[in-house]
């Protein structure tokens, strides 16, 4: 199915050609209302676009598909498409390079820009098998370096520091945690970010706090349940929980 084009997705609109098909010609001949038939540039290369247009079209469609599967909104997906278009223009997407990794990296940076990060495991879940989190991280680094150079910086561009609070509401919602517990999770995350220096990844800290709140509320949410949603190993959740329990009074006062 050809996706809808136009104001709803300006990135796709330019990659489609408006083509007068036989049905439209017949409608005109019969005096009936004429319709507009759209065919993607990828299928009508000689009529509507170059090879680069086709590459952009494929990238835009793939990014939209990934965003849909990760429930990412239009603002973030459009930012990811802007990034991909810049990479294509700068010839950073090399021949033979796995394209899905590039698309995922563009989404990674766009999500961070908007303060709504996705974990690398989440991003890796929507690309083909055989390409892991390390490849997405490596491509994200390449993009950040390019953006830094474009801005006249001699270092990687900062695209948003990820903290535990960034994941709390989304993961809590996916676990079906009650509103009161979600508020407790958010408060604990804020205290953690402002007053504690715990050297663990934001994902691990998020999982541990959610697990701690669920246990304190008497919920039946297990470490395995939290692991399934967050992508953090059960053992890691329990280790981080043990560490954070030393600060429980501060976190949940």
Gist of the model:
With 253 residues, this protein is mainly alpha-helical.
Report what the structure shows:
By secondary structure, this protein is mostly helical. It is built from 13 helices and 2 strands; from the N terminus they run H-E-H-E-H-H-H-H-H-H-H-H-H-H-H. The protein has helices at 10-13, 22-30, 51-69, 74-89, 99-113, 120-124, 133-150, 165-174, 179-195, 202-216, 223-230, 234-245, 248-252; strands spanning 16-19, 37-40. Strands 1-2 form a two-stranded antiparallel ribbon. Helix 3 packs across helix 5 and helix 9 packs across helix 10. The protein is elongated. Residues 1-7 and 16-48 have low confidence and may be disordered.
| Low-confidence runs | 1-7, 16-48
What percent of the residues sit in helical stretches (DSSP H or I)? 55-70%
The first-to-last residue Cα distance is 54 Å
Number of strands: 2
The overall pLDDT average reads 78
Structural class: mainly alpha
Please compute the radius of gyration using only Cα atoms.
Answer: 23 Å
């Amino acid at each position: 199915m050809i996706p809808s084009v136009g104001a709803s997705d300006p990135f796709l609109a330019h990659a489609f050609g408006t083509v007068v098909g036989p049905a439209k010609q017949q409608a005109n001949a019969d005096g009936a209302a004429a319709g507009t038939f759209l065919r993607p540039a990828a299928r009508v290369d000689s009529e509507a676009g170059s090879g680069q247009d086709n590459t952009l079209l494929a990238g835009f469609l793939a990014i939209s598909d990934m965003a849909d599967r990760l429930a990412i909104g239009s603002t973030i997906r459009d930012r990811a498409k802007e990034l991909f278009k810049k990479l294509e223009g700068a010839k950073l997407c090399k021949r033979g390079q796995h394209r899905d990794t590039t698309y995922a990296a563009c989404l990674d940076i766009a999500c961070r820009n908007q303060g709504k990060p996705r974990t690398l495991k989440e991003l890796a879940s929507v690309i083909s098998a055989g390409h892991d989190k390390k490849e997405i991280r490596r491509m994200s680094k390449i993009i950040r370096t390019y953006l830094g150079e474009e801005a006249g910086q001699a270092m990687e561009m900062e695209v948003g520091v990820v903290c535990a609070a960034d994941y709390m509401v989304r993961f809590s919602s996916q676990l079906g945690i009650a509103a009161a517990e979600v508020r407790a999770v958010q408060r604990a995350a804020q205290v953690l970010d402002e007053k504690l220096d715990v050297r663990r990844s934001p994902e691990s800290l998020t999982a541990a706090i959610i697990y701690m709140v669920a246990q304190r509320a008497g919920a039946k949410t297990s470490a395995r349940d939290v692991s399934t949603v967050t992508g953090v190993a059960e053992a890691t959740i329990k280790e981080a929980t043990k560490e954070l329990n030393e600060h429980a009074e501060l976190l949940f006062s």
